[in-house]
Amino acid sequence: MSRGFEGSMTQQRLGLRLGIDRTTIVTVVDGLQDAGLIERNRDPADRRAYLIVVTESGTAAQRRGRRLVRQAERELLGALTDEEHGTVTGLLARAVPERTPPDAPR
């Protein structure tokens, strides 16, 4: 099993990271688990909490998704120079920092 790009995190932290309320994150996590993309394990540090761990299938899906995003970004911003592209993506990353992947340009 893979730990994914950010490793495991609690269901509550995932909800905060994505800006999803507590009730909705349960439904989201249930769907991801049913699809085999994550596993939900008890947090040894807090038995009331669950750690969300990305499976190998989840990691592969995440990589495919990031590849598709980069492709769409190239198509959308293809007329820009490299410098302009960096400026646009950097500004967007600053606009929504809590939802920005750790490898996004700053």
Topology:
Elements lengths: L8 E2 H8 L3 H13 L3 E6 L2 E9 L1 H22 L4 H14 L11
Antiparallel strand pairs: 1-3, 2-3
In a nutshell, what does this entry contain?
The chain is of the alpha+beta class. It has four helices and three strands.
Describe the structure.
54% of the residues lie in helices and 16% in strands. The protein has four helices and three strands; from the N terminus they run βααββαα.
List keywords for this structure.
3-stranded antiparallel sheet; 106 residues; alpha+beta; 4 helices; elongated; single chain
Mean pLDDT: 85
Task: Give the N-to-C terminal Cα separation.
Answer: 30 Å
How much strand content do the residues show? 15-25%
Taken from the alpha-carbon principal axes, the silhouette is elongated
**Roughly how much helix do the residues carry, as a percent range?**
40-55%
Topology pattern, helix = H, strand = E: EHHEEHH
Total strands: the figure is: 3
Give Rg in angstroms. 16 Å
Provide a count of the helices.
4
Unreliable residue runs: none
Structural class: alpha+beta
